[in-house]
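Kindly inspect this today.
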Amino acid sequence: MYINVLKIYKIKYKFLIILETILCCTAKFASVINMYSNFVRPTTTPAANRHFNSKALSGEEAKRLYIEEIKGAKDPSQLPRDKPQSQHVNKTKTVEEPRLSDKELFLTVQNNDVNTLKAVLDRYPDKINKIDKFGWSLLMIACQANSVETVQELLGRGADVDVRDKAGNSARSLIIKNKNFSLASIFVTHRNSIEIQNVTVDDSKMRTKDKEKYFCETCRNEFQDKQEHMSSTIHNIMSSKHRKLPVNYVIPSSNKGYQIMLKVGWDKESGLGPDGSGKKYPIKTVQKKDRKGLGLGKIKLKNKDECMKDTDKRMTKKRKHIERQFEVNFRREFY
């Protein structure tokens, strides 16, 4: 559009120059005619000459008309310009980051790459409990690989610690199997923090609610807290006071003799025998597998090698006891 306006003004300018040139030539021609009329008798009347002179324009008048025409025109720089339209429009496409595969995620956890794990979990939080084809979760892989920072990150994000694989192993059982004390302390600290949060929530709920009194028909008394009373020793003793203990004959129900006695009409709650006068709880016996009599074995003096073996056995037994005690203490924190 801007180019078209410039072309129009150029044409006007050329036209005005040509007009000015014509007018100048006309004025000169008129002056020549006036000079010629001084010597030659005019063939036309003076009125016609005046009419001819009135139609002629001088150079000053042509210049004045040109200036007025230019003033009325607008400045081309102030005219609205069209935005240049490019033939090819560049379309910005949002390029998504390549999604991390499950195998790469498992390797990230195994290699203790916490930064990559944070980026993936921030974008895909549902992968916190992702398991592989063997049933191993991210937390189990981190515990097996001793990735301490990764374990802390997963526990902080609320990873499920009760996930088990096809063999029944969990994250806690892997810690016990590997005897990893640092991860065990992290798990215990995490569990204690969760318990503290739950206790504070329960306390706030209990403060808002008034405790209702509970009447126990077994104990014939009122108590403030039903749950606390139901788990108390007094209630358990009173409940089992008039309850009969189930009989145990150490005989499987598939035994033929047991089934025949039931068909005859024997009451298993009364006792053994056809009349039910036998014992309900027979004494357990231990089978004697050797054929030696009492006191038949000879006492042998222990030599130095046997003493060393006994010492090794005691040390091994002591070490196993320590490991077993560690496992028991760790399990008590969760069970």
Summary: The longest helix spans residues 2-39. The two ends are 85 Å apart (CA to CA). The beta strands are 214-216, 221-223. Confidence is low (pLDDT under 50) at residues 86-96.
